[in-house]
Specification:
Low-confidence stretches: 228-259
Distance between the termini: 47 Å
Oligomer: single chain
Structural class: mainly alpha
Number of strands: 2
Radius of gyration: 24 Å
Strand order of the largest sheet: 1-2
Strand content: under 5%
Helix content: over 70%
Shape: globular
Order of helices and strands: HHEEHHHHHHHHHHHHHHHHHHHHH
Number of helices: 23
Largest sheet: 2 strands, antiparallel
């Protein structure tokens, strides 16, 4: 029925648009940490750790390296929790569905906002659980929104990467808080407002998202959320096509689709695809986390402690993060570019998807190496280019990560595999703290050698696209041999 089709179309568009706003304005706020650190230093958080020191020519200087180390530790723990807890959250999402997972995430996000709101220089240690709660709640917003790509079929990868780009861009939220703080708005007022926004998240959970998960492929006339006054006749017709609404939400495949033997979770876990993808994500993520966690002390060193210059470059970094939502869809378009085009004889859709992902995986690794080289160069104006390359690479990295998992493995294991790869990469990213301690200690504040080491480590990311390319080429060769022999 035309009326029903229009209702479904409007609802899907609303789900997509509100999910984009949610990811853009809230989900990845913790990655704007450099902007919030500037505010926290002005409000004298951990200022007791600053001590007087004797500099060159016997001049007295204020050494705040212990304060910087404390802020770096907060971000290290939060970024670790952001990824590591994605594993149990993936199982939670696959087992209990969207509503339970989102309510859990909203609770954490609200608690984190309230903890920052009621923290102070005397209660600075509240930042440790607060930032971790914000990170956990934010990644759950992203995880439950990425399934919206299933509603748009041929543009599935584009939607997934767009949401990941919005997640990256939401780090500019802390820039807005920084600018409001400079205009007289207190940190408490800003974070109380963030906590109050949880009402919007709850309403969206019940009105515009399914109780369970959005299946892929999508059943005919699949519906979800609240039935907005649909007629009984319309509901009867939908029931006839999909057998029942609830069955459509519960069933990952259409009822009349042929039964396909999917790989088990263990088989997916032990596959070379998973292992090389984990390495690809881990080495690049470590590079990004160390850069974000040490951005403020790096700018302090390159500007020789000039507050106005530090603020200027911090703002520039945060503003470039807004471009993440513009960069990420290009990665999705790269991965979806074969959709609608005829495939080679005998080529499956998954094989075509994998073949299309090679260019995306390679470009992401190349961007990371270029970004790391620029970040390793101690020349202040060059950092504008570093910021651009960083947001471009980060958008490609996380969007490509989710998209690759969704196309390389069965959809019934998406939550578990996405959670596991994020959790294992989080264990690897803990290396950022000893790297920071090494720079502050043995290297006397100069991160040059650590940056070079991380740049060389980033070269390992090229193994993944090469392996996927060889896999696709071997499949094509086997098809050609089979065709010749037949």
């Amino acid at each position: 029925m035309p009326g029903l089709e229009n209702n479904l179309s409007v609802r899907r568009c609303l789900t997509f648009a509100t999910g984009l706003v949610e990811c853009l304005c809230f989900a990845g706020a913790v990655f704007g940490w450099a902007s919030l650190v500037f505010v926290l230093k002005e409000d004298r958080y951990f200022s007791s750790l600053c001590v007087n020191a004797t500099g060159l020519n016997s001049t007295q200087t204020l050494d705040c390296s212990a304060q910087d180390e404390q802020f770096s530790l907060i971000f290290t723990i939060a970024s670790f929790m952001n990824n590591f807890l994605t594993l149990p959250h993936g199982f939670l999402f696959d087992r209990f569905g969207t509503t339970v997972t989102r309510l859990y995430g909203i609770f954490f996000y609200s608690m984190g906002s309230l903890m920052v709101a009621f923290s102070s220089s005397a209660l600075a240690y509240l930042l440790f659980p607060a930032l971790s709660f914000l990170a956990v709640g934010g990644i759950l917003f992203l995880m439950t929104n990425m399934q919206v790509g299933n509603l748009f079929g041929s543009r599935r990868s584009t939607i997934i990467t767009l949401y990941n780009g919005a997640f990256d861009s939401s780090s500019s939220l802390f820039l807005i808080i920084k600018l409001l703080h400079e205009s007289g708005v207190s940190l408490r007022a800003a974070f109380l407002f963030l906590s109050a926004c949880s009402v919007i998240h709850i309403l969206r959970t019940f009105l515009l998202l399914p109780r369970k998960c959005i299946p892929y492929p999508l059943p005919d006339r699949y519906t979800y959320g609240v039935s907005c006054g649909e007629s009984k006749a319309a509901n009867t017709e939908v029931a006839a096509n999909s057998q029942t609404h609830s069955a459509a939400e519960e069933t990952p495949l259409t009822m009349n689709a042929p039964v396909k033997q999917e790989r088990t979770f263990r088989e997916c876990l032990l596959s070379k695809f998973f292992i090389w993808h984990l390495l690809w994500l881990s080495v690049m993520q470590l590079r990004h986390y160390l850069f974000i966690g040490t951005l403020n002390p790096m700018l302090q060193r390159l500007t020789e402690g000039e507050p106005s210059l530090v603020s200027q470059y911090t703002n520039a970094f945060a503003i470039t993060q807004l471009c993440g939502v513009l960069c990420a869809p290009w990665n999705g378009l790269l991965m979806d570019r074969h959709k609608g085009k005829p495939r080679a004889a005998g080529e499956t859709e998954q094989e075509a998807d994998l073949r299309a992902s090679v260019l995306s995986l390679f470009l992401t690794a190349l961007q990371c190496v270029l970004f790391s080289l620029c970040a390793s160069t101690p020349y202040l104006p060059l950092q504008y280019l570093t910021f651009i390359l960083q947001v471009l690479n980060r958008s490609f990295l996380y969007g490509g990560n989710a998209a690759f998992i969704s196309l390389a493995f069965p959809s019934c294991h998406f939550g578990k595999l996405y959670g596991l790869v994020m959790a294992l990469s989080a264990v690897f990213s803990v290396l950022q703290y000893p790297c920071f301690a090494l720079v502050k200690g043995a290297l006397g504040g100069d991160p040059f050698y650590v940056n070079i080491g991380l740049t060389l480590l980033s070269l390992l990311a090229f193994i993944h696209p090469f392996f996927v390319y060889m896999h696709c080429r071997n499949l094509a060769t086997e098809r050609a041999k089979s065709k010749t022999s037949s």
